[in-house]
Amino acid sequence: MKDRRISYFRQKGDAYIMGTSLGLVLSLLMVAFILGVILVKGLGFFWPSDLLYLQLKDGKHYLGEVTDREESVRFSESGEPLHIQEVQLKIGNRDLYGLDFVWIDLSDVVEQTYPAHAITIERLEYGNFYGFPQKVRWGERQWEVHHPDFPQQLRRLHHQAVANRKQIARLEKQLNRLLEPLSHVERAISLLEISPEAQTPEGRRKMQQLEEQIRQLETAIREPYTRLTRQLESRYQENRQLVLSLITADKQVKEIPLEKIVRCYFPNQMGFFQKASLYASKLWEFVSADPRESNTEGGIFPAIFGTVLMVLIMSIAVVPFGVLAAIYLCEYARPGPVVRLIRLSINNLAGVPSIVFGIFGLSFFIYMIGGSIDQLFFSSKLPEPTFGTGGILWASLTLALLTLPVVVVATEEGILAVPQANKEAALALGATRWQMIRKIILPNAMPGILTGLILAISRGAGEVAPLMITGVVKLAPSLPLDTTFPFLHLDRKFMHLGFHIYDVGFQSPNVEAAKPMVYTTALLLILLVVVLNLIAIRMRNHLRKKYKMAAF
Which residues contact 516 (CB under 8 A, 6 or more apart)? Predict the structure, then answer.
């Protein structure tokens, strides 16, 4: 009787259903755990922590943020276990100490306080600075920390220094644009001088023409060049006079130019809502600003922009080719060994390691196609390559080739799901094969096509290995899309969130300080992939509902 029950239980399949359900629950729990760790480790990085001041028995003094606590067990000389509590303190001031973090045994602490006048300074260089402000000065004028107007003057002068810094950046760009035609002519002269043509009458005539262009350009830009350089020098001179003087916990004096400060605040004086406001400001900076300090601080907007643009170009490239290949295999190709070989090749292509696609993209897209484009259209710029080097176009095409099998297979499934009766009815009514494909097959197969696109986005957005040799860089000086003609610069290198995680997590000179940036960037990459997928899923569901309603 017992054996019959077990046999019936197995035949019914309840055991397998419970096993698959348990596997699904465990998978969801692991995903939730990973997301929870990323959320806590990442988003907590932007909260302005209080500054703890510690005085040790040996006379050392420390000021910084508590980043971790740990309890360990040590044994005394008599063999008794001693429970030791330690705290990890982020002391900053990397230019003075050479390190950002120290572990401190709490049993060695004589005094610990949270001084109200301790200040946190986020700098453009060398990370955070923790100390006690002494005075802020503007040339001969200065305001001591005990002056009642000190906080207001500090904010005012800092805003002025930041405005000057932004104005300096704008003036430098204007100056570069002004000198750009002159640099082009000077480069042409340099190339002509080293070419065999320089010794011919035609070459000497070209040289005279170029030299005449130089003289004309110098005359034309002399006045605006002088005006811009005077404005630059005025801003530089003013910012050199705006300085904040501080003293560290161990009594070292430090002067920081206000233009080098991103923000400064007194965390021990701030309430919850003030910290929440600052938290939102830092979070916005993270998604909208450029990176700094070897990508360990600042924002990651160029990486977000590069990732989204690369996915869009990849999608535009992979969908048409994938759909055409699937239509040919399903509707035009006759069954036979050649078609079976093509399908086998597509399936095998899906299992090729991504780095192999990167090598192919480097040799075929960059060296062969890009080099040919440079020879035909950009020969005047050689030997400096334009398209014959890594760029966002070649990286996107490489990922399109990587995700092509996914789109082909998903599109084939969508085409095969279209009822055969609908196809035969269209042909019976006099429609050509192409009209039947365009009016019957493609609209009804669109959900399957979008399913392939969703899978392609999910895989392509997170790939890093092929991008490392086809165009991604640690820091891109300019975005591939800007206001300069032709606006979309497909030859430019770009930043990517996946590569940014690799670079910050494994190539950073200060790995401990970069950990929060790794978690936060990983969270943003996950959110970006989810958003792109949700958009595609919404489109797919809309089309599926539309054509389902049209069938009745």
Answer: 41, 42, 44, 45
Q: Give the three-state DSSP class for 61.
A: strand
Cα-based torsion angle of the residue sequence 204, 208, 213, 216 in order, rounded to the nearest 10 degrees: 170
* CB neighbours of residue 258 within 10 Å: 23
Arithmetic mean of pLDDT over the chain: 86
> From CA 446, how far away is CA 449, in angstroms rounded?
5
391-401 confidence digits (pLDDT tens): 999 999 999 99
Query: Which one is the CATH code of 302-550: 3.40.50.170, 1.10.150.20, 3.10.310.10, 1.10.3720.10?
Result: 1.10.3720.10
Q: Tell me the pLDDT band of 552, cut-offs 50, 70 and 90.
A: very low
Two tokens, residue 307 = 């990732």
For residue 253, what pLDDT band results from cuts at 50, 70 and 90?
very high
Cis previous bond, 201, omega within 30: no
Give the C-alpha separation, 65 to 185, whole Å: 54
CATH of 52-130, picked from 2.40.50.1020, 3.30.365.10, 2.30.30.720, 3.50.30.60, is 2.30.30.720
Model confidence, pTM: 0.84
Q: Which range, of 77-81, 214-218, 241-245, 357-361, averages the lowest pLDDT?
A: 77-81
- More confident of the two residues 78 and 529: 529
- pLDDT the model gives residue 309: 92
Distance, CA of 134 to CA of 255 (rounded, Å): 10
**DSSP symbol at 80:** -
Euclidean distance between CA atoms 465 and 459, whole angstroms: 12
SS (H, E, C) 82-139: EEEEEEEEECCCHHHHCCCEEEEEHHHEEEEECCCCCEEEEECCCCEEEEEEEEEEEC
DSSP conformational letter for 13 = T
